[in-house]
Amino acid sequence: MNPDNDPQPWQVDTSEYIHQLPWFTVRKDAIRMENGGSIPNYFIFEYPDWVNVVAVTTEGNVVLIRQYRHGIAGVHYELCAGVIDLGEDPLVAAQRELLEETGFGGGNWQPLMTLSVNPGTHNNLTYAFLATGVEPRQAQHLEKTEEITVHVVSPERAREIINNSEMIQALHVAPLLKYLSETPGGPARFSGL
């Protein structure tokens, strides 16, 4: 339920693309607010929607990956994640990404949460899913641009990974933290909570 005094959506006077490539599309809007304020150069980064998966094996362990990320020039733990193809259902995309990146599949799937990397500057959402009872189904099927290692860890180790900042991708920490906080040994086991 939204409060009656919520701010109103901004009005877009003009909108133009500054740059358009598959992984770098920037739009410039001229904004007018209800209170009379205006922003002549408001930049939006356009991306397709994303998915990520908290995958839990039949034994109760968590399936994580590690890969190099050039933006920070480092390797950290992550959840399996990827882009939703045009017209693809988010659940289908999540199941596809888990199978391709880790070789794990099956199990029971449910939505876990929906996130935004930054609602002030990005137009896309990330749909996080919880997959329980997953099992190895095939070898990884990676793209030429992917170098991913798979790590199956206990919930206790997953908590350590979060506590030690070994996973720093916020869109991955949030759903994993939600899952772990709802499992035995939950919130009290996190140093920052």
TrEMBL record:
Transmembrane intervals: none
GO biological process, any: nucleoside phosphate metabolic process
InterPro entries: NUDIX_hydrolase-like_dom_sf, NUDIX_hydrolase_CS, NUDIX_hydrolase_dom
A GO molecular-function annotation: hydrolase activity
Catalytic reaction list: GDP-alpha-D-mannose + H2O = alpha-D-mannose 1-phosphate + GMP + 2 H(+)
The protein's required cofactors: Mg(2+)
Pfam families with a match to the protein in the record: NUDIX (PF00293)
Keywords of the record: Hydrolase
Domain annotation Nudix hydrolase: ranges: 46-175
CDD domains (UniProt xref): NUDIX_ADPRase_Nudt5_UGPPase_Nudt14 (cd03424)
Stated name of the protein: GDP-mannose pyrophosphatase
Organism (species): Spirosoma validum
